[in-house]
Amino acid sequence: MKKDHLNNSLQHYRKKIDEIDLKILSLLADRISLITKVGDLKKEYQDKFFIKSAREADMIKNLIKKNNINFPKSLIVNIWRKIITTANMNEQSIKLLVYNPNNILEYEYLIKEYYSSEVPILSCNNAEDIISQIENNLANIAIFPLPKLNSKTEKKEDINQNWWISIANNSKGLKVFTKIPFIEDNKNHQLVALAIKDAEESSEDFSLVCIKTDKNITRSQILTAFEEENISANMLKFVKIENFENINFSLVELEGFYLEDSLKFKRFLNNKIKPVAQIIGHYPRQIS
Questions:
Q1: CB of 232 within 8 A of CB of 264?
Q2: Which of 32, 124, 206, 251 sits at 20 to 30 Å (Cα–Cα) from 234?
């Protein structure tokens, strides 16, 4: 009798779970239907790149804030990133090119966690080739590793090792638009995604800046120049490049959303260290 009662109870709850699963599928279908309409609207207004990273980030952060059942943040991010990617792919084909000359296996894992296993991912050993393919519409998203905080090399490097320098000289509008992974962690690898798209501001952002200075200007002088304008800045890389004897290059992360015509940024450009600087993109703050 007890076993029969157990089986009947399990069958009752399993039926309820199956009903809820079907409701979830039906709601996902409704969501895709709305996304299709949004995609048609974007096409009507000639929006060439449909991914709206700022909107996506704020959407997920809002869900986490409203999570009242202690559902793990990582699962909310993982589930909704897959839902969002499915919607993105319904609007527009997605092809990813990854700069991975050292064949780091974790890159593909991080990208699939952020997007999905359905997105085509191709590795490439040459940064300039990736940029060229994006410019010629052979792919629409480029993935590059972000240098570790305060990384510095004593020997000269070539530009291909520092993709961000080439991005600063890009004339097609190729910019950083998000950071991978979306949940902050202490792992070794941080990636950024780039596309030819307009800048988007989310509720909390960082800006990436490529800076050229005279060879005698130090990294501390650059950070001091930002500090004088009340801009919070982290030096990600400070490097000398082959064939550029009199120039130092810096990659700096700024807390906040800045464009070239932002007042504080324009004042930084007039600093006595005479920097030449270009905003190469933005990304929403990761979830901690």
A1: no
A2: 124
* Rounded Cα distance, 198 and 50, in Å: 11
How far, in whole angstroms, is CA 208 from its chain's centroid?
11
pLDDT class of 150 with cuts at 50, 70, 90: low
Integer Cα distance of 104 and 86 in angstroms = 26
Specify whether the CB–CB gap between 249 and 241 falls below 8 A.
Answer: yes
pLDDT of res. 152: 56
Which residues, including other chains, have CB under 8 Å from residue 234's CB and lie 6 or more apart? 149, 150, 252, 253, 255
Using DSSP, state whether 255 is helix, strand or coil.
Answer: strand
Question: Could you tell me if 280 and 175 are in contact, meaning their C-beta atoms sit under 8 angstroms apart?
Answer: yes
The structure's pTM equals 0.90
Token couple for 43? 């096409």
The percentage of residues in the chain with a pLDDT greater than 90, rounded to a whole number, is 70
Structural domain boundaries of the chain?
A: 1-47
